[in-house]
Amino acid sequence: MATFHPYLNFNGNTEEAFNFYKSVFGGEFSALMRNKDLPAEYPVPEAAKELIMHISLPLSNGVILMGTDATESMGQKLIPGNNFAISIGTESEAETDKLFNLLSTGGHVTMQLDKTFWGSYFGMLTDQFGIQWMVSYDYPKDGEAHQESANSQQATA
Question: Domains of the chain (ranges plus CATH)?
Fold first, then answer.
């Protein structure tokens, strides 16, 4: 079953906002990637290198608050109304394809589904009603894939 998470965009103050949310809700960041961590084929202006590419703060019951710095120097423009998206975490590439294709009907694809450098099958779109969506399947890590394989072998034995 898919999971849903709020994804917030900020104008250069994501780190400040998420440190505030952390002080309010508690917990620890499960992910924090800066623009300077992008692979070399994604050039980053010097002024944007320390900005947040992605941050995650687990809240409760599997809900994760996520965010990014939307930077004009990297082709993003933050305007009221586009400062959030709904992120869907799926259980397979097939489920990702299905939800992405259905949601994008009559809408606009902003990032085509593709395998990413961070280990996900990911795409972004704005639906026909102007709502932004991020659809993502996280590939199992080596240990997880090995464990899943071992579990399935035990189940069939």
Answer: 3-156 (3.10.180.10)
